[in-house]
Specification:
Elements lengths: L8 H12 L4 H8 L3 H14 L17 H13 L5 H9 L8 H10 L3 E3 L2 E4 L3 H14 L4 H4 L3 E9 L9 E3 L10 E4 L6 E9 L3 E7 L5 H11 L1
Helix pairs in contact: 1-2, 1-3, 2-3
Main location: nucleus
Protein name: Transposable element Tcb1 transposase
Organism: Araneus ventricosus
Amino acid sequence: MGKAADQSEFDRRQIVVARRLGTYITETTRLVGCSRSAVVSIHTKWINDGDASSRRQGVGCSRVIKEKGRRRLSRLVKQNRRQTLAQLTAQYNAGPRASVSEHTVQRTLLDMGLCSRRPTRMPLLTKRHRQLRLEWAREHRDWIMDEWKRVAWSDESRFLIHHVNGRVRVRHLPGEQLLLSCTAGHTQADGGGIMLWGTFSWAALGPVVVVEQTMKAANYLNIIADQL
């Protein structure tokens, strides 16, 4: 007679129903055509798990890059986040362990959450710039709404007519996009564009002014005097 592992889903359901109706084990084995141990095993599984199914969760293929290798791969990424997949694979294979393919490295990186993304664009700020901005924020953090309503905000920006879009990629985990190694600095480039100045406040939206000259302190004050 068949063992528990050999029983179909239909036979398993028959065993459970028969036992729930009070059918003796011997009679159930004759009805289904299986061994006594199969009836006991399947019925016990249903009592304990609420399910007599034979479906088992597959374990899948074993990892080619084990936990130690994954930690090493993570260190290689953090050493230079701009490396290509080919460069990372070459560096990993330079170690003492067995060589792996680019596909394996890519699959492992995706599983670790280290996807390839474009670097976050942010202004190039020196240490002095960051310090001044922090001091300004601390000085004004207790301002109330009426005080902010009296402030006019202004800025200028150059809009490029011909823009070259780079294809630099970095790998980082969620929340790491503002790390210095994950960003790409940019400046307001000269040539092939137009410089515009604008302002706004709580009460109104100011005009947009075309800046013909290099924006210096004197030019900035002249624009402020003319527009505000």
